[in-house]
Amino acid sequence: MIVVDRVHKSFGAFHAVTDLSFQVPAGSVCGFLGPNGAGKTTTIRMLAGAIRPTAGRLLLSGLDVTKDDRAARRWLGYLPETNPLPAELTVGEYLKFRCDLWGIERAARRGAIECALERCDLNAVRNKLLGALSRGFRQRAGLAAALVSAPSVIILDEPGAGLDPAAAMSFRELVRTLRGDHTVLFSSHNLAEVEATCDHLVLIGGGRLIASGSATDLRRIGAVGVRIEIEATGCDLNALRAIVGVIAVRTRSLEAGWSRIDVEVDGESASALTATIGESLSAARASVRRFERVNPSLEEIFQRLVPVAGAEDPA
User: Domains along the chain?
Assistant: First the structure.
């Protein structure tokens, strides 16, 4: 588990993080989100022990980073945004070097290296120089180095940056396999990447917590409803707007007299409202060629929540 408890970090008169508190459940993959300047990098550096908070506590697997950062870091695997790999070493040599840094006993070293290579699918390139690998394999090597000490907590800072679509998809699949065995904090600007990878979300802005929880929790906090997308003719729009639980009805014209109608409904009552909307269309004798229930994307949730938080942020 990761615990950030009333953490504050200032650099002179600038408050990078203010009274920030959140928890990442043990065994989950948590997306750490926020606009540029939100305080994500500062928070990650504090968790990694690179900088100290001005106030507050940061716990990794129950150990307080602010009191004993060496003991806490023993349980942390960290892949920074800029993955510093020595080009002149092979993958296997680099993992051996990382074992030496962690003080892993010689008897356990071989098993730790083999496990990391297997987990990150690197056996085929174990004897290749890091400098000769593609960006995707270098990221895998960086993750293997973070895993070689068998940490309980892993922090990934923008791990998909610079990867081509195929490599990014493959890396996301790899991160998902870490769920359960490790607690993962996954920072990214790519909301689609986070939505495809994470089961828990933490959203910050202006150095403060905006929301945390599952995507469902964030939809509720941001009052983002479920959307029913309809393509039809002959709809009674007033009847749709009059349905209790319908938040908004938006329309636009399509070809040959057809209309696209987006009906936003309360998420908690979405199933019942979907049926009611269908009954309303039937009563109006509308011709319907498409009727689809769509959950709001993480991007829609983000856009709804961040401006509200920004407006309230005195910084």
Answer: 2-214 (3.40.50.300), 225-295 (3.30.70.1710)
Q: Give me the half-sphere count of Cα atoms (radius 13 Å) on the Cβ side of residue 194.
A: 26
CB neighbour class for 120 (10 Å; exposed up to 12, middle 13-18, buried from 19): buried
> What CA–CA distances, in Å, run from 182 to 26, 33, 201?
7, 20, 16
pLDDT digits (tens, 9 = 90+) for 284-314: 999 999 999 987 777 777 877 875 444 433 3
The Cα-based distances of 216 to 94, 225, 281, 296, 298 in angstroms read 41, 10, 28, 10, 10
With a cut of 70, list the residues of the chain below it in pLDDT.
Answer: 222-224, 307-315
**CB–CB of 16/187 below 8 Å?**
no
Distance, CA of 266 to CA of 284 (rounded, Å): 23
From the number of C-beta atoms within 10 Å of its C-beta (0-12, 13-18, 19+), residue 183 rates as: buried
pLDDT recorded at residue 223 = 61
| Confidence at residue 221, expressed as pLDDT on a 0 to 100 scale | 73
- What is the strand order of the sheet 200-205 is part of? 76-79, 153-157, 183-187, 29-33, 200-205, 208-213
pLDDT for res 222: 67
